[in-house]
Amino acid sequence: MPCALCGDIIPTEIARCPACGAWARRRDFRAVGVAVFMLLGFNAFIALGSGISLIRAAHPLREATHDTYDPAATGRSLAPYGDVFVICGMMAAITGLLYLGWLWRAYRQSPGPHRHHQAWVVFGWITPVVNLWMPPRLVYETWVNSGRYRTAQRHAAGLVVSGWWVCVLLGLVLARWFNGGSVHTLAEARFEVHLGVAAAACQALAAAFCMATVFQITRIQVTRED
Q1: Residue 92 vs residue 162, higher pLDDT
Q2: Is 9 helix (H, G, I), strand (E, B) or coil?
Q3: Following CA atoms 99, 101, 103, 108 in sequence, which dihedral angle do they give, to the nearest 10 degrees?
Q4: Which SS3 state, helix, strand or coil, does residue 2 take?
């Protein structure tokens, strides 16, 4: 394998270039995959913790009545969760930038055939309307092209990718709905809590499904390169 820094040949049994000491590309790709995997795990942990905390916050509302319900106190207790969802969105954006670099490399390394140009790895996320369906197609294409899969295995990979993307979209919509909701009545407050729990669950599941795709694609490509 040629060194990405100096061009010298790196034997397969060593991880660094004998000429300049740079890491082999397969080792660098593995490091990026591990970094993305860990960030996704942290995002899932935060989302899961938020959901559990919201479930605990729902207990006083179950015992409350229309006469004892205090909208101001409920609004103050739920307001921090809106900030948590905003912070989760910012963390997801930071993770997404690193994920985009990983996907660019993984898509380029997958043998093909590719139905889309590699530029769509970037433009597929930022082009309106197209970004509703292009990212999961690129991830699925990268996954199934990285190894030899039977039909059942391709379907299983498609289910994982589809589950990831559905949870991503639902998590975004539900979190935005939660932040724009009201707690003027007891029924609205209960609905708001359930909405927040659903948003946190979708975000945690999206991160978990994405971790599965990153792990499998990285493992297959690194093993193939070795």
Answers
A1: 162
A2: strand
A3: -170
A4: strand
